[in-house]
Amino acid sequence: MNISFIHTADLHIGKKxxxxxxxxxxxxxxxxxxxxxxxxxxVCIRNNIGFLLIAGDLVDAKYCTxxxxxxxxxxxxxxxxxxxxxxxxxxxxxxxYSLYRFIDWSDNVHIVDxxxxxxxxxxxxxxxxxxxxxxxxxxKQNERTCLYNIEVDPSDINILLVHGDIFDNxxxxxxxxxxxxENLFDYVALGHVHQxxxxxxxxxxxxxxxxxxxxxxxxxxxxxxxxxxxxxxxVFVPTAKSRFITKEIFLQPDFxxxxxxxxxxxxxxxxxxxxxxxxxxxxxxxxxxxxxxxLKSEASxxxxxxxxxxxxxxxxxYDYWIEENSDNIVxxxxxxxxxxxxxxxxxxxxxxxxxxxxxxEKENDR
Length: 366
What we know:
By secondary structure, the chain is of the alpha/beta class. It has helices at 23-46, 66-78, 257-265, 270-275, 292-300, 318-324, 329-338, 345-358, and strands spanning 3-8, 51-55, 83-87, 109-111, 119-123, 128-132, 157-163, 187-191, 197-200, 203-205, 221-227, 232-238, 244-251, 277-287, 306-310, 313-315.
């Protein structure tokens, strides 16, 4: 018998964004995560998906509200023909105070409410058994030995649903030795790693449906599977409304203001710039006459979100300034800075700010 299911994890609903978002941008990103969650449920309904497996960190318990949980429950109830199995992760642990305990879930929702022993959720009409164990706050740095004592009926379709790290067994918060158990299961639905990752044909991290920060590159989505005892068909389905994109731009001293502005503007196409999140890393050297603060402010108007990493230096000809001002304080000023063994952007900004004062100009911090 074939079963169909969607495997997802790590939505982090309610997450507070600590990147350089202002409150409006943070709200927008939280709204986009909700919209992607709604889309996943709509896919389940439209395609009559048998099972939705959520491998932990559905919500960020620190910030998720009771209203958020009620909204989740309401949406799950719409997918009445889909059995929804939710295990908990390190960001939404199942504790005495977990909001999972206080919601009236519809009959098609199954919360894994055990954290020290395996929970077996069986569907006899499908010859399917799903095994899982949730996380609580005591699990940090502990390996869950109950995972290694599972007994399965080899005639059933057996799925393991669990949140943890199979790659870093020495330092991971929630480590799993997958080699001890993978052969027991027809599919292992993992959560915790935020990039789509195939450990093997049947051991999968789906990654986050929406990327959460600039470390989460590439495509993000869900995994759609059809499974029986002899065959697994799986397809990665992109779901992300937006991407986090990092680009490096190497600057040269002969680039003028307009050229640098154009390079930044055209680092993304119009559609991408209007919906994605950009981080521009500026390297190389810049003519000291260019006001980079003004340039970055102007460039920002072409993107829905952009931030800059300043890894560049100004091209400063110390000898020229010293020679041209040998008889005044400006020359002495440049001699002082030239004598320094260190050259970094903050020091250069201080030099240029002081130069503006010495020249009687009213310049802002570059």
